[in-house]
Amino acid sequence: MSGPIPFSKRRYFPAILGLGSCAGAVLLVELLVYVELLNRFIIPPPSDVVAAFPRVILEEHVLSRFMLTAGEALAASVLVTIFGVAGGVLLYQFNLLRLATETWVAAIAAAPLVLMYPLYLVIFGRNATTIVMMGFTAGLAPIILKTLEGLAGTRRVLINVGRSFNLTPSQQFWKILFPAALPTIFVGMRLGLIFALINIVGVEYLINFGGLGQLINELAERFDIAGTYAAICFVIVVSIIVFMLTERLERWLRPAG
Amino acid sequence: MSAVAMPSERDAVPGAAEPILVVDRIVKRFDTPDGTLTAVDDVSLSIKPGEFFGVIGPSGCGKSTLFNVIGGLLDGYDGAVRVGGETVRGPHPAIGMIFQEESTFPWRSVIDNVAFPLEIAGMPKAERYARAGHFVSLVGLNGFERRFPAELSGGMRQRVSMARTLAAEPKIMLMDEPFASLDEQTRLLLGDKVLQIQQELKQTTLLITHNITEAVQLSDRIMVMTYRPGKVKRIVDIDLPRPRTSEIVSSEAFGRYVAQIWNDLREEATRGLLDDESRKLRAGGPS
Fold first, then answer.
1. How many whole angstroms separate alpha carbon A79 and alpha carbon A68?
2. Which of A97, A183, B26, B199 sits 20 to 30 Å CA-CA off B88?
């Protein structure tokens, strides 16, 4: 007869372990600041950060700033996914194009694209479009590369199954190549969205325009260190929302495997 | 309740005595860094409707090349492949293929894998699921319809591939070492399943294998191929009673056929082994 399931095997154990580790790290930082091993003027005690939340929420209009950054992140995510996946497909379909540009695309992925913001300011002006386009530019290359990798890595036998059933090129793509490549494409999307979000908040900070990046800039310039960290926590919330959406999308598109 | 007509037996081609599949003097060469390699040389065979035809040969004798040529996945060969008198130029709807490698779609459940060719054919959802369910049941996977391939064993996944190919109702089923990655016991039991399905559907089948036991257990005739270039060495009629099961492997007649085919194969397999070793020596590999 089988006994009760051990606690460590339960479905919710990884989530509890994750939250527990996070809480443990916060407590450790609190302790290190308390015993003055960490400088509280550089790293505030987490309890001060928690205490700063109501002030940041009520006095700094964090909700509207949060919505602006989240909106920019969402717009950049949609753009980067559409154009990144399409770019990867294009490079897969046309080998000459792939041979001619793959190295460049890889080089762009590694470049500090945030330094291009003055150019984007000239092109688009000091507005949300500049920020979205900076996020888009930064997130594009990883999605292109991972889409290409996913499509090129489709097992030959699966393609042959499609051929044996006389699939048209369009069916071959939508019924076999695309679903086979989806896990790798989503790895690229996650990487691309990280790059996009970093650049969105970074450019908001640099050009002091709207959103959470501007809030972080303002709080930092006021030496409100606890408030700065509280605002950073809202950036993490945006990141979590974007990741949860991509996970949902992946599960919907490819329920298993 | 809507009734869906289930195929109990494949349509026989007009003139049942006429071969349904004719392979006529196939020669397939490949360009390699060491020069031109003739993989298949002047191979001819003909298969009657409902027949189970085995092709056996040592590794590297061109069996899989022949499989791909007949299945229409390879071109650029001399000779012709004809199905019911029609020359095959590319994948043909009358031919279904089961591959050696694991070929289920991991993102589709068992029932969705099996319904795949019906979905491609544009069959309405309810009808294709009813029909796919019939083939899932035929390969003995009832209760696993909603499972995904990752949740199944290797033998079960091969049965899903088989059901998917059968669902397209091909006149000829090609199998390329479908049980090569399975253990001996699973292989024998799956052989039983193949025999049962073949006898139930009168499915014309061409099996490529390097396993003598499997070939004798399943086939009506076996073509023995030579090692490189792959030529027809001999065609052996297997006069064992049908319906067969894996119990046949313990019979005296079965043993005689296995010994006879091994006699033909031994020389070819030895040639293959020596050739492989000399190539490794030339390449500076392990001796």
1. 16
2. B199
Contact B101, A155 (CB under 8 A): yes
| φ and ψ of B270, to 5 deg | -65, -40
Report CB contact under 8 Å: A158, B149: no
Residue B238's domain comprises 53-282
**Nearest neighbour of B91 by CB, restricted to A166, A179, A257:** A166
Q: Residue B55 is encoded by which pair of tokens?
A: 């092709």
ipTM above 0.90, yes or no: no
Contact (Cβ atoms closer than 8 angstroms) between residue B231 and residue B182: no
User: In chain B, which ranges are continuous DSSP H helix?
Assistant: 63-70, 110-114, 116-120, 125-138, 154-167, 184-201, 212-218, 252-282
Q: Which fold has domain A52-253?
A: MetI-like fold (1.10.3720)
CATH number at B185 reads 3.40.50.300
Give the whole-angstrom CA distance, residue A41 versus residue B182: 65
Average pLDDT value for residue range A233-240? 87
Q: How many domains does chain B have?
A: 1
Q: Which residue has the tokens 């799956």?
A: B190
Average pLDDT taken over every residue of chain B:
87
**Phi, psi for B204 (deg, rounded to 5):** -65, 130
Report yes or no: A216 and A209 within 8 Å, Cβ to Cβ.
Answer: no
Question: Which residue in A has a C-alpha nearest to residue B149's C-alpha?
Answer: A257
B96 near A CB under 8 A: yes
What confidence category does residue B59 fall into, taking pLDDT thresholds of 50, 70 and 90?
confident
